[in-house]
Amino acid sequence: MKPIWIVDDDQSIRFVLEKALVREQFTVRSFASGRDVLSALDDDEPQVLVSDIRMPGGTGIDLLTKVKARLPGLPVIIMTAFSDLDSAVSAFQGGAFEYLPKPFDLPKAVELIRRAVDESLREDVRDTGEKVMPEMLGQAPAMQDVFRAIGRLSQSNVTVMITGESGSGKELVARALHKHSPRGDLGNKGPFVAINTAAIPKDLLESELFGHERGAFTGAQTMRRGRFEQADGGTLFLDEIGDMPFDLQTRLLRVLSDGQFYRVGGHQPLKANVRVIAATHQNLEERVRQGAFREDLYHRLNVIRLRLPALRERREDIPMLTRFFLQKSARELGVEAKRITDAAVLRLSAFEFPGNVRQLENVCHWLTVMAPAQVVEAKDLPPELLGVAESRPAAPPLVMPEAAPAPVYAAAAPSTMPSVPEAPAALSWLVDLEREARRRLEAGEAEVWEALTKQFEGQLIHTALELTRGRRIEAAQKLGIGRNTITRKIQELGLDD
Questions:
Q1: How many C-beta atoms surround the C-beta of residue 80 within 10 A?
Q2: Phi and psi (nearest 5°) for 132?
Q3: Which residue in 5, 226, 392, 428 has its CB near the most CB atoms, within 10 A?
Q4: CA-to-CA distance for 356 and 346, rounded, in angstroms?
Q5: Domain 153-308 maps to which CATH number in 3.90.79.10, 3.40.50.150, 3.50.50.60, 3.40.50.300?
Q6: What is the dihedral of CA 310, 314, 315, 319, to 10 degrees?
Q7: CB-CB contact of 479 with 466 (8 Å)
């Protein structure tokens, strides 16, 4: 890891911070002025920069601006006196990670710097993989199945049907299928043409698909090529195929069968060498049973089916997607990318996202514009997300019975929460902990830290002892603590009773 850089003209401040950080195993470099920092950047760069706001020969804001121009992702902490809070606002506008008011509490200063280091390390990992992010739709097992299918289909021109809820990314998968096929970027670079059959009025859809001749209908003043002609040599993506009018389904079936079609008002048969990829959020089998979709067209399209999972089925992808969309929104708006805390990501991961990936992208766009600070916290999320915890039933008090205690952070039963699914197992207990801590803190209870810590430790020890059938040394080994520690904790928590 790179060193922490401290810049302050006050030697005592530099000395105190440097010693405290060295004790925490950080490497530190100190500077007396901004000029020295800018010179040092020619040969080295920091993991985090901590700068005073008032220094001879240039302010911390000036330094912040110059450093950010060279290292946009570097977390910069500005130290400021209370009378400099107006300057602190300028620091945030300039992209500062946080400001540290003087005189500061040393442990809190170290903790703030540690948070900045953690954020910087995450940024380093994201920067490494950013170039491939648009191609990486997710790392959940369900998405890996989709990736494997795309790989297997990479040398094929077979017709593919993609199913999945609205907003789940069906067009992205279609583009990936095209890109990696002999027709796409890796082959003859044929075009990828997309059309949403549900978004175009029935009277215009036929012309959009097959084109029209001049004078074919009122307003047709020139000949127009349809999407099939435009996609010649490439891929035609028919989105929301389940909503296609029944009479047009017949014409589409004919094209898929013999490759020939006529423009509207035309008499000359045309041919197009097109691979068709279709997508729908509807149950096509049910549409066939209802007589709303041709069974022969269904079988013609349903050669290979790829099911795209909903976002709630791959919650482990939410942190990666969130940070990518924040970066994407920042690039589109020409601003610095917002960072997001783990607590905020945890809240996002617990949300159902009925609009799937598209909704998450919209949330990130909203945060880029509306979040008040450069670091997005859980309280900064949109109102519909902040209501997740409140919409759930209140958790029962966390108690430690004297006999066999129940799990402290058990999730509510699914039957009590029809509208909001539980977070993944790795996250649900933290959601419940947050809810319980909030309940106690808002109620003004005393010694919340001690009470919850005791219950947390007690549950860990109780579970370990249960697994080892009361063998304390083995339980201590499983927990990663010493046998004297587990003995002392058992006595302190009254677990001997």
A1: 23
A2: -100, 0
A3: 5
A4: 16
A5: 3.40.50.300
A6: -110
A7: no
462 Cβ contact list (under 8 Å, min separation 6): 405, 495
Q: Are 168 and 356 a contacting pair, CB within 8 Å?
A: yes
Top CATH class of 4-124 equals: alpha beta
Tokens for 366?
């909203």
Question: Could you tell me if 330 and 286 are in contact, meaning their C-beta atoms sit under 8 angstroms apart?
Answer: no
Select 397-413+427-497's CATH number: 2.30.30.240, 1.10.357.10, 1.10.10.60, 3.40.50.720.
1.10.10.60
**Cross-strand bridge partners of residue 78:** 51, 99
As a whole number of angstroms, the distance between CA 100 and CA 7 comes to 13
Residue 387: per-residue pLDDT: 64
Residue 175 has pLDDT above 80, yes or no: yes
Asked if 210 and 226 count as a contact pair (C-beta separation under 8 A), the reply is yes
User: Three-state SS for 154?
Assistant: coil
Per residue in 141-169, pLDDT (tens digit) is 888 888 888 888 877 888 999 999 998 88
Residue 186 to residue 183: CA distance in whole angstroms: 7
The fold adopted by the segment(s) 312-391 is Helicase, Ruva Protein; domain 3 (1.10.8)
Query: Which residue bears the tokens 């514009």?
Result: 369
CB 102 within 8 A of CB 81: yes
- Do 358 and 321 form a contact (C-beta atoms < 8 A)? no
Backbone angles phi, psi at 190, to 5 degrees: -70, 160
Using one digit for the tens of pLDDT, what is the confidence trace for 66-118?
888 888 878 888 887 654 555 555 556 567 787 788 888 888 899 889 888 87
Query: Tokens 């022969």 belong to which residue?
Result: 296
Least confident of 4-8, 38-42, 391-395, 459-463: 391-395
Q: Is 56 helix (H, G, I), strand (E, B) or coil?
A: coil
In whole angstroms, give the CA distance from residue 353 to residue 184: 32
